[in-house]
Amino acid sequence: MRNAGKNLKLTVNNLSVCYHDEGPIKAPTIVFIHGFPLNKSMWDVQLEVLKSDFRVIAYDIRGHGGSDAGIEKFSVSLFADDLLHFIDALEIENPIVCGLSMGGYIALHAIGKSPDRFAGLVLSDTQCISDTPDIRAKRMKSIENINKNGVAHYAEESIKNLFGSDSFTTRKSEISAVRDMIVQTSKQCLSHTLFALAERKGTCSKLQDIAVPVLVIVGKEDKITPPAAAHLLHEKIQGSRLEVLPKAGHLANMESPSRFNDHLRNFIKTFDKKTIPQILARDLVFSGNT
Ligand code: MLT
């Protein structure tokens, strides 16, 4: 039986995962995967607005938010296994998976492992390349800095790169929410995830095998995974759509939620009933709320 609500717990792949699960059970399902070093609450606006038309699920990646860290060494591949186990445990058929940045890395690893599991992908502010030696070195430096100067200092440094220029005046509450998410993350989780990101494999050579609809979204001012990375995904994934959001940086869904949600809805409207059987089960009304 499905448990609906917020901050639910489920044991998956030997760890307790914390998640929100809202919206009608028979509606098409979107599973949201957060970026680093954040947690599921970065998707709060999407869940609130989209839950009238979709079953919307956002979960905390191991070690983040309310999910346990477990005992295994963190890797993006392990995070992808967690996602696949999570979807199985909830018995979700053909979800659309929407991942931002690290969430996109996880989605791309997961579809590589299990190509038939998803109805579609939304890849927001993410990329298929692995880290360059330079970026890897920066991550090691960040680990040193976190240990030396603490998480609050790391949060301030990270925020400078996460948002587009206008957001520093127009999105103060989002910035404050992001600061809270970062400072609530343990030093150990930050370090282990930075290692996992540094060691992740690239997925560019597998993009041609993706056979489901894909929407690529990027903030025009994204400094971490810039529009060029999104263009590369779009070129390599046959039939994909690309949307570039003005006045948004790396956290496009928080900085431009109306546009982000509209693109998501419009993308899902293009699915046929064979791809998402739930469209058959429910007379979908797209309210157009943003
Ligand atoms: C994220 O937002 O998940 C991170 O910026 C990803 C990364 O550092 O590669």
* Average pLDDT: 95
Radius of gyration: 18 Å
| Multimerization status | single chain
Approximately how much beta-strand content do the residues carry? 15-25%
- How much helix, percentage-wise, in residues? 40-55%
Our measurement of the CA-to-CA distance between the termini, rounded to an integer number of angstroms, reads: 30 Å
Would you give an account of this structure?
The protein has 290 residues and is of the alpha/beta class. 42% of the residues lie in helices and 16% in strands. An eight-stranded mixed beta sheet has the order 1-2-4-3-5-6-7-8, with helices on both faces. A hairpin with a 2-residue loop joins strand 1 and strand 2 (15-22). Helix 2 crosses helix 3, helix 4 crosses helix 5 (151-162) and helix 5 (151-162) runs antiparallel to helix 7. The chain is globular, with a radius of gyration of 18 Å. It binds D-malate (MLT). D-malate binds at residues 35-36, 101-102, 197, 224, 250.
Summarize this entry quickly.
The protein contains 12 helices and 8 strands. It has helices spanning 44-50, 76-89, 102-113, 133-149, 151-162, 167-170, 172-183, 187-199, 227-236, 252-255, 257-269, 278-281, and strands spanning 5-12, 15-22, 29-33, 55-59, 96-100, 120-124, 214-219, 241-245.
Notable traits:
binds D-malate; 290 residues; disordered C terminus; alpha/beta; 42% helix; globular; 8 strands
Write the topology of this structure.
Layout: E1 5-12, E2 15-22, E3 29-33, H1 44-50, E4 55-59, H2 76-89, E5 96-100, H3 102-113, E6 120-124, H4 133-149, H5 151-162, H6 167-170, H7 172-183, H8 187-199, E7 214-219, H9 227-236, E8 241-245, H10 252-255, H11 257-269, H12 278-281
Parallel strand pairs: 3-4, 3-5, 5-6, 6-7, 7-8
Antiparallel strand pairs: 1-2, 2-4
Helix pairs in contact: 2-3, 4-5, 4-8, 5-7
